[in-house]
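Section 5.1 Outputs to date
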Amino acid sequence: MTRAQVLAYPTLTLAHVGDCVYELLARSRVVHKGVYKAHETHRRTVALVSAEAQHQGARAILPQLTEDELAVFGRGRNAKPKTIPKHAGLEAYAYATGLECLFGYLYLLGENERIDTLWKAVAAEIDPEA
């Protein structure tokens, strides 16, 4: 897809795709760290995909983003979702949506190496033990 085609998608559609990409990366990280019972695998994954964790990860990578990536992130951060989860503050949820929007944008562009680079930086920030 071209950049124009990807940017034609609604912001929350990009975030929807990015949520899937981000969760797959988080689940893969947990599985690669060891063999756990299902409950522990789920608990560890949730810790990585929570709005608070995504907020922390997004803040860590902001200085690494290109101008285009910052624009996409900002578009996601400024989106007006219909609902906000009870367990997340507005700022954390906004940053999480921005991060998901960015990952969705990069995925649809086929920028897998860039996703990998940014994911490694996010993961180092939110899960430094690995």
